[in-house]
């Protein structure tokens, strides 16, 4: 097949491109040229800004893609422009969305109120009622890490535009929290650093220790995207992509510790005793666990990389590429005091 990817030069995209090339598909990537992704030589690169997508119609027609994989859709406005650009040219658009479309995510982040949502979340679970996905400070932080996010960021109107076009079929993939080599959020780093520095315990706020969320290793998520791109059965369908079953944050840290070979323990403590630098503001009574039964049943998806190997690769990358951090993020004196208080209480 001939597949055009929009973006695909950041965290997940290059893995998708390499998987498609491995399968023998002719692949092109449209991007600004700012990043220097490690892409196979045979991949065609088309340079431009997605905000001016329509200006590149002639280049797109020359490549003549059958499927578009849009990795960086941020808003309904962008999605409508993409559908207009590729209508009559491509046969299908695959959009990378997020599990943050679910109402459970709004309740978790405190942008919505109401009863807790049942989990695991399926593709038919209730969506957010508010366009405010995250609190302003969280969205500001995310936009600093992911420059393609715009001020209108909301994946719900993205999905509606992609799935609602009568002439151009769509596919939507709702992604989890993705970890692995290249993770710009360095999700595992705070735990690995403490383990490598022989901390006796890693503290977790009690409700956060119980919380369950969706996770996916970057190579496995990329495999799901590539599968959906080439499968005709994916047309008109929405799929969650996530490891399952979801484990609690405490279990997750323990699994990391097992791979690292860390002899310490994970210690849940009451919120009022949790040091300020590791306290979390979320409503952790709302789990965010997702089900990926649909993509497994309908497309035959299975993770090509098992979790232990995924953690080994991620840990090696995190150690080789530590992020910049403020010293107060690792206030071990405060953590030692909290550990001591907890030991006396027990």
Walk me through what this model shows:
This protein has a domain of 232 residues: NAD(P)-binding Rossmann-like Domain (Rossmann fold). The model has no long low-confidence stretch (mean pLDDT 95). It contains 13 helices and 11 strands. The strands form 3 sheets. A 7-stranded parallel sheet has the order 3-2-1-4-5-6-10, with helices on both faces. Helix 3 packs parallel to helix 6 and helix 7 packs across helix 10. Helix 1 links the parallel strand 1 and strand 2. The radius of gyration is 21 Å and the shape is globular. 40% of the residues are buried. It is α/β, with parallel strands linked by helices and 346 residues long.
Residues in β-strands, percent: 5-15%
Please identify the structural class as seen in this structure. alpha/beta
What percent of residues adopt helix (DSSP H or I)? 25-40%
CA(first)-CA(last) distance: 62 Å
Largest sheet: 7 strands, parallel
Mean pLDDT: 95
Overall body shape = globular
CATH class of the domain at 2-181 and 214-246 and 287-305: Alpha Beta
SSE inventory with pairings:
Elements: E1 2-6, H1 13-22, E2 26-31, E3 44-47, H2 57-63, E4 67-70, H3 76-86, E5 92-98, H4 103-109, H5 136-145, H6 155-163, E6 170-175, E7 177-179, H7 189-196, E8 201-205, H8 206-210, E9 215-217, H9 218-230, E10 238-240, H10 249-260, E11 265-269, H11 293-299, H12 307-320, H13 332-345
Parallel strand pairs: 1-2, 1-4, 2-3, 4-5, 5-6, 6-10, 7-9, 8-11
Helix pairs in contact: 1-9, 3-6, 7-10, 10-12
